[in-house]
Design a protein that fits this description.
Elements: E1 14-15, H1 26-39, E2 43-44, H2 53-69, E3 74-80, H3 84-89, E4 96-101, E5 105-107, E6 111-112, E7 121-130, H4 141-147, E8 148-158, H5 169-174, E9 179-184, E10 198-203, E11 206-211, H6 219-232, E12 242-244, E13 252-253, E14 259-264, E15 268-274
Parallel strand pairs: 1-2, 3-12, 5-9, 6-15
Antiparallel strand pairs: 3-4, 7-8, 7-12, 7-13, 8-9, 10-11, 10-14, 14-15
Protein backbone atom coordinates (compact mmCIF):
# COMPACT_ATOMS: atom_id res chain seq x y z
CA UNK A 1 0.00 0.00 0.00
CA UNK A 2 1.49 3.34 -1.02
CA UNK A 3 1.08 6.09 1.53
CA UNK A 4 2.88 9.34 2.22
CA UNK A 5 4.40 9.65 5.68
CA UNK A 6 2.41 11.12 8.52
CA UNK A 7 3.38 14.46 9.98
CA UNK A 8 3.74 12.98 13.45
CA UNK A 9 1.53 12.88 16.55
CA UNK A 10 1.70 16.64 17.01
CA UNK A 11 0.36 17.50 13.55
CA UNK A 12 -2.31 20.16 13.24
CA UNK A 13 -5.70 19.52 11.72
CA UNK A 14 -6.30 20.61 8.14
CA UNK A 15 -9.20 23.01 8.74
CA UNK A 16 -11.96 23.34 6.18
CA UNK A 17 -13.37 26.91 5.98
CA UNK A 18 -17.12 27.13 6.29
CA UNK A 19 -17.50 28.97 2.99
CA UNK A 20 -16.05 25.94 1.21
CA UNK A 21 -19.23 24.02 2.05
CA UNK A 22 -21.29 25.97 -0.48
CA UNK A 23 -22.43 23.95 -3.49
CA UNK A 24 -20.31 26.07 -5.82
CA UNK A 25 -17.17 25.09 -3.91
CA UNK A 26 -17.56 21.35 -3.49
CA UNK A 27 -14.25 20.96 -5.35
CA UNK A 28 -12.51 22.54 -2.37
CA UNK A 29 -14.03 19.95 -0.05
CA UNK A 30 -13.00 17.09 -2.33
CA UNK A 31 -9.45 18.45 -2.54
CA UNK A 32 -9.31 18.79 1.25
CA UNK A 33 -10.41 15.19 1.79
CA UNK A 34 -7.97 13.93 -0.82
CA UNK A 35 -5.20 15.90 0.91
CA UNK A 36 -6.16 14.30 4.22
CA UNK A 37 -6.12 10.85 2.63
CA UNK A 38 -2.66 11.30 1.15
CA UNK A 39 -0.99 13.12 4.04
CA UNK A 40 -2.69 11.73 7.13
CA UNK A 41 -3.90 15.18 8.17
CA UNK A 42 -7.48 15.04 9.54
CA UNK A 43 -10.04 17.70 8.72
CA UNK A 44 -11.66 19.62 11.54
CA UNK A 45 -15.43 19.23 11.46
CA UNK A 46 -16.09 22.94 11.98
CA UNK A 47 -18.02 24.38 9.08
CA UNK A 48 -19.52 21.19 7.64
CA UNK A 49 -23.06 21.79 8.93
CA UNK A 50 -24.45 22.69 5.46
CA UNK A 51 -23.25 19.41 3.92
CA UNK A 52 -26.18 17.35 2.58
CA UNK A 53 -26.44 14.00 0.80
CA UNK A 54 -26.50 15.50 -2.68
CA UNK A 55 -23.29 17.42 -2.08
CA UNK A 56 -21.74 14.42 -0.30
CA UNK A 57 -22.21 12.15 -3.33
CA UNK A 58 -20.77 14.86 -5.57
CA UNK A 59 -17.76 15.31 -3.29
CA UNK A 60 -17.08 11.56 -3.27
CA UNK A 61 -17.21 11.45 -7.09
CA UNK A 62 -14.86 14.41 -7.34
CA UNK A 63 -12.47 12.76 -4.88
CA UNK A 64 -12.35 9.71 -7.12
CA UNK A 65 -11.64 11.90 -10.16
CA UNK A 66 -8.80 13.61 -8.29
CA UNK A 67 -7.26 10.27 -7.34
CA UNK A 68 -7.42 9.00 -10.93
CA UNK A 69 -5.92 12.27 -12.22
CA UNK A 70 -2.99 11.70 -9.85
CA UNK A 71 -2.30 8.34 -11.50
CA UNK A 72 -4.27 6.08 -9.15
CA UNK A 73 -6.10 3.10 -10.61
CA UNK A 74 -9.59 1.97 -9.66
CA UNK A 75 -9.62 -1.58 -8.29
CA UNK A 76 -13.31 -1.97 -7.46
CA UNK A 77 -15.86 -1.07 -4.80
CA UNK A 78 -16.77 -1.48 -1.16
CA UNK A 79 -20.29 -1.69 0.22
CA UNK A 80 -21.21 -0.15 3.55
CA UNK A 81 -24.24 0.05 5.84
CA UNK A 82 -25.12 -3.57 5.06
CA UNK A 83 -26.13 -4.22 8.68
CA UNK A 84 -29.65 -3.13 9.61
CA UNK A 85 -28.63 -1.58 12.98
CA UNK A 86 -25.99 0.54 11.25
CA UNK A 87 -28.48 1.81 8.66
CA UNK A 88 -30.90 2.59 11.47
CA UNK A 89 -28.22 4.57 13.31
CA UNK A 90 -27.91 6.81 10.23
CA UNK A 91 -31.67 6.80 9.60
CA UNK A 92 -31.02 5.47 6.09
CA UNK A 93 -32.86 2.70 4.24
CA UNK A 94 -30.23 1.35 1.84
CA UNK A 95 -26.54 0.49 1.80
CA UNK A 96 -23.94 2.89 0.44
CA UNK A 97 -20.83 2.27 -1.61
CA UNK A 98 -17.31 3.61 -2.00
CA UNK A 99 -14.44 2.90 -4.36
CA UNK A 100 -11.20 0.95 -3.92
CA UNK A 101 -7.86 2.15 -5.26
CA UNK A 102 -5.11 -0.27 -6.27
CA UNK A 103 -2.61 1.58 -4.08
CA UNK A 104 -4.66 0.75 -0.99
CA UNK A 105 -4.77 -3.02 -1.60
CA UNK A 106 -2.32 -5.50 -0.13
CA UNK A 107 -1.95 -9.30 -0.40
CA UNK A 108 -2.43 -11.58 2.57
CA UNK A 109 0.62 -11.56 4.83
CA UNK A 110 1.67 -8.04 3.88
CA UNK A 111 2.36 -5.01 6.06
CA UNK A 112 0.07 -2.00 6.30
CA UNK A 113 1.38 1.30 7.61
CA UNK A 114 -1.30 2.64 9.97
CA UNK A 115 0.85 5.25 11.71
CA UNK A 116 -0.84 8.16 9.93
CA UNK A 117 -4.39 6.87 10.49
CA UNK A 118 -6.52 8.44 13.21
CA UNK A 119 -8.56 5.50 14.49
CA UNK A 120 -8.11 2.47 12.22
CA UNK A 121 -10.59 -0.37 12.59
CA UNK A 122 -10.69 -3.87 11.09
CA UNK A 123 -13.59 -5.65 9.42
CA UNK A 124 -13.87 -9.22 8.09
CA UNK A 125 -15.36 -9.28 4.59
CA UNK A 126 -16.03 -11.50 1.61
CA UNK A 127 -14.37 -10.13 -1.54
CA UNK A 128 -16.00 -10.91 -4.88
CA UNK A 129 -13.83 -10.92 -8.00
CA UNK A 130 -16.02 -10.15 -11.00
CA UNK A 131 -15.45 -12.21 -14.14
CA UNK A 132 -18.05 -10.85 -16.56
CA UNK A 133 -19.87 -7.52 -16.92
CA UNK A 134 -22.76 -6.91 -14.55
CA UNK A 135 -24.68 -3.75 -15.41
CA UNK A 136 -28.33 -4.77 -15.26
CA UNK A 137 -30.62 -2.41 -13.31
CA UNK A 138 -32.60 -5.54 -12.36
CA UNK A 139 -29.56 -7.63 -11.38
CA UNK A 140 -30.45 -10.63 -9.25
CA UNK A 141 -28.57 -13.03 -7.00
CA UNK A 142 -28.38 -15.48 -9.91
CA UNK A 143 -26.83 -12.76 -12.07
CA UNK A 144 -24.17 -12.22 -9.41
CA UNK A 145 -23.44 -15.96 -9.27
CA UNK A 146 -23.03 -16.02 -13.05
CA UNK A 147 -20.78 -12.93 -13.09
CA UNK A 148 -18.55 -13.98 -10.18
CA UNK A 149 -15.18 -15.44 -11.13
CA UNK A 150 -14.07 -16.17 -7.57
CA UNK A 151 -14.31 -15.02 -3.97
CA UNK A 152 -11.70 -14.47 -1.27
CA UNK A 153 -11.46 -13.70 2.44
CA UNK A 154 -10.64 -10.07 3.07
CA UNK A 155 -9.71 -7.64 5.82
CA UNK A 156 -10.83 -4.07 5.38
CA UNK A 157 -9.12 -1.34 7.39
CA UNK A 158 -11.37 1.67 7.75
CA UNK A 159 -10.58 5.14 9.02
CA UNK A 160 -12.11 8.61 8.82
CA UNK A 161 -10.45 11.69 7.41
CA UNK A 162 -12.69 13.80 9.65
CA UNK A 163 -11.25 14.63 13.06
CA UNK A 164 -13.27 12.62 15.56
CA UNK A 165 -14.90 10.54 12.81
CA UNK A 166 -17.90 11.03 10.53
CA UNK A 167 -20.65 12.57 12.64
CA UNK A 168 -23.29 12.25 9.91
CA UNK A 169 -24.14 10.17 6.87
CA UNK A 170 -23.15 12.95 4.42
CA UNK A 171 -19.73 13.14 6.11
CA UNK A 172 -19.33 9.37 5.76
CA UNK A 173 -20.29 9.37 2.07
CA UNK A 174 -18.15 12.38 1.19
CA UNK A 175 -15.17 10.59 2.75
CA UNK A 176 -15.58 7.49 0.53
CA UNK A 177 -17.30 5.55 3.32
CA UNK A 178 -14.14 5.47 5.47
CA UNK A 179 -12.19 3.41 2.89
CA UNK A 180 -8.54 3.18 3.88
CA UNK A 181 -6.96 -0.19 2.99
CA UNK A 182 -7.92 -3.75 2.16
CA UNK A 183 -6.07 -7.07 2.38
CA UNK A 184 -7.40 -9.71 0.00
CA UNK A 185 -6.61 -13.40 0.44
CA UNK A 186 -6.32 -16.27 -2.03
CA UNK A 187 -9.29 -16.51 -4.43
CA UNK A 188 -11.40 -19.67 -4.41
CA UNK A 189 -14.49 -20.80 -6.26
CA UNK A 190 -17.83 -19.44 -5.11
CA UNK A 191 -19.21 -21.83 -2.45
CA UNK A 192 -22.82 -22.87 -2.92
CA UNK A 193 -23.52 -22.03 0.73
CA UNK A 194 -21.88 -18.58 0.71
CA UNK A 195 -25.05 -17.10 2.25
CA UNK A 196 -24.41 -19.14 5.41
CA UNK A 197 -20.73 -18.21 5.83
CA UNK A 198 -19.42 -17.21 9.25
CA UNK A 199 -16.26 -15.32 10.13
CA UNK A 200 -13.77 -15.08 12.95
CA UNK A 201 -11.88 -11.80 13.11
CA UNK A 202 -8.74 -11.81 15.26
CA UNK A 203 -7.21 -8.47 16.24
CA UNK A 204 -4.17 -8.96 18.41
CA UNK A 205 -5.27 -11.66 20.85
CA UNK A 206 -8.99 -10.83 20.81
CA UNK A 207 -11.41 -12.84 18.65
CA UNK A 208 -14.65 -11.49 17.21
CA UNK A 209 -17.15 -13.81 15.48
CA UNK A 210 -19.38 -12.61 12.67
CA UNK A 211 -21.78 -13.79 9.98
CA UNK A 212 -23.56 -12.82 6.79
CA UNK A 213 -26.48 -11.59 8.89
CA UNK A 214 -24.59 -8.28 8.82
CA UNK A 215 -24.27 -8.36 5.01
CA UNK A 216 -27.92 -7.88 4.03
CA UNK A 217 -28.38 -11.48 5.17
CA UNK A 218 -26.62 -12.69 2.01
CA UNK A 219 -23.46 -11.22 0.42
CA UNK A 220 -24.81 -12.19 -3.01
CA UNK A 221 -27.70 -9.80 -2.44
CA UNK A 222 -25.25 -7.11 -1.33
CA UNK A 223 -23.34 -7.37 -4.62
CA UNK A 224 -26.62 -7.47 -6.55
CA UNK A 225 -27.66 -4.24 -4.82
CA UNK A 226 -24.39 -2.61 -5.89
CA UNK A 227 -24.84 -3.79 -9.49
CA UNK A 228 -28.36 -2.38 -9.60
CA UNK A 229 -27.24 0.89 -8.02
CA UNK A 230 -24.34 1.36 -10.44
CA UNK A 231 -26.57 0.49 -13.40
CA UNK A 232 -29.06 3.15 -12.30
CA UNK A 233 -26.19 5.63 -12.65
CA UNK A 234 -25.22 4.41 -16.11
CA UNK A 235 -22.31 2.31 -14.90
CA UNK A 236 -21.75 -1.27 -13.74
CA UNK A 237 -19.34 -3.90 -12.54
CA UNK A 238 -16.55 -4.88 -14.94
CA UNK A 239 -14.33 -7.97 -15.24
CA UNK A 240 -11.52 -7.74 -12.71
CA UNK A 241 -13.43 -5.55 -10.28
CA UNK A 242 -13.02 -6.46 -6.61
CA UNK A 243 -16.12 -5.92 -4.48
CA UNK A 244 -15.97 -5.94 -0.69
CA UNK A 245 -19.51 -7.06 0.05
CA UNK A 246 -19.84 -5.66 3.59
CA UNK A 247 -18.54 -6.17 7.10
CA UNK A 248 -19.45 -9.45 8.81
CA UNK A 249 -18.79 -7.93 12.24
CA UNK A 250 -18.89 -4.70 14.19
CA UNK A 251 -15.70 -2.75 13.30
CA UNK A 252 -12.91 -3.51 15.77
CA UNK A 253 -10.32 -0.82 16.66
CA UNK A 254 -6.76 -1.91 15.91
CA UNK A 255 -5.37 -0.05 18.92
CA UNK A 256 -1.82 -1.27 19.46
CA UNK A 257 -2.41 -4.64 17.78
CA UNK A 258 0.46 -5.71 15.54
CA UNK A 259 -1.63 -8.11 13.47
CA UNK A 260 -5.14 -9.06 12.40
CA UNK A 261 -6.65 -12.04 10.61
CA UNK A 262 -10.03 -13.00 9.22
CA UNK A 263 -11.08 -16.63 8.81
CA UNK A 264 -14.21 -17.19 6.74
CA UNK A 265 -15.86 -20.59 6.35
CA UNK A 266 -15.40 -22.04 2.91
CA UNK A 267 -12.94 -19.33 1.87
CA UNK A 268 -9.91 -19.63 4.15
CA UNK A 269 -7.90 -17.06 6.11
CA UNK A 270 -6.35 -13.69 5.33
CA UNK A 271 -3.93 -11.89 7.63
CA UNK A 272 -1.87 -8.72 7.82
CA UNK A 273 0.67 -7.03 10.08
CA UNK A 274 0.70 -3.36 11.03
CA UNK A 275 3.45 -0.85 11.71
Amino acid sequence: MIRQPANGPGREFFVLPKEDMEASNVHAVARSLRHAMRHGTPLASAGIEPLNLGLAFEIAALGRELALAEGERLAGYKIGLTAAPVRASYNYDTPVHGYLLESTLAPSGGFIDTRQLSNPMAEAEIAFIIGSPLDDPDASIQDVITATESVAPALEIIDSRWSGGAASLPMLIADNTNASAAVVGKPVGLPADIADATSLLTVGEAKHPGSTDSVLGNPLESVAWLARHLASQGSGLKPGDIVLSGSMNVPVPLGVAAMAAAQITGLGTVHAAFR
